[in-house]
Amino acid sequence: MQIKPEQLIASLRKQLPPVVWISGDEALLMQEACDGVRRLAKEQGFSERQVLDVGPGFDWNQLLAANSELSLFAERKLIDLRLGAHKVDEAARAALMEYLERPNPDNLLLLTTGRIDKQSQSTKWFKQLESAGAFCQLWPVSEQQLPAWIGQRLAAQGIRAEPEALQLLADRVEGNLLAAAQEADKLRLLVNGEHLDVAQVQELVADNARYSVFALIDTCLAGNGERALRILSHLRGEGEELLYLLTMLCREIRALAAMQADLAQGQSLNTVLQTHRVWGAKQAQVSRALQAHRQSTLLALLERARRIDQSVKGLLKLNEWDEISALALRFSDPRLLVGVI
Fold this sequence. Notes:
Layout (H helix, E strand, L loop, with lengths): L7 H7 L4 E5 L3 H17 L4 E6 L7 H8 L8 E8 L5 H12 L5 E7 L4 H4 L2 H9 L1 E4 L8 H11 L3 E2 L1 H11 L3 H14 L4 E2 L1 H7 L8 H10 L2 H13 L4 H23 L4 H7 L6 H11 L2 H18 L7 H13 L9
Parallel strand pairs: 1-4, 1-5, 2-3, 3-4, 6-7
Helix pairs in contact: 1-2, 3-4, 4-6, 7-8, 7-9, 8-10, 11-12, 11-15, 11-17, 12-17, 13-16, 13-17, 16-17
């Protein structure tokens, strides 16, 4: 059965199936959901826990052995099976189906995977797993949803926040879910009373926006040119070296160009992402960038970067920060490359 995230623990308290499957790409949401299941399992008497981390060459017989072996202390056991970025491939599906054929009533399987797409959810193996256990899909919190998400978190701690305060708090953390959770926990301790307004947020909350070259790259890949310019301006104000920023941007652009070349040779997107070791949440960003850019636009970006490099070395006279700003903006939105070299 499929269970909404907010109903997961309450549903499991009513009926605990042999398998609890939690799927998603947002680390904080995954951690909190799994922690909730682990606490519930402990309450239900599953005092022993065995962790199986799936990686390349994983022996799926370990799962079957964990299910069949007896505990030294005759305790109920939680089997914590973590696939992470590893796909639910044929070997995984076969082992999970065999596990379900002979479920051990003294065991609870907690299965965690990356996000399961709609196509996979229509397959026979998925429906078998879903019918035998509880499936909970965790979706990332969007920019529009973030104020409400923070509000719910504060409300659970007895704090009622004004909409303007929630929006300001969301703006301060700029999509950083972990920072948002940390600020909500801190406000629970610092807020005087049960009401939170804009003035209190301004006084109590630090600016947790992640201004780094890696945030700049992720923002460009995600197509948010406005934020990319804001991050770049902040990095300049902090004294970051332009040449370092240029080098890191070029490395990402060259990687995209190499992936585009592989796609042009007929390789599938999933194969290309795996070959170039693009994992987790970054897959969506890179996939978007590959759809947005052609090989010609990526080469144009590298040509612009070459000219900036020449200017830094004194071979050309350019306004280098203006040029790298244009580079970041057009990396975010290649449509702005029209007529520009």
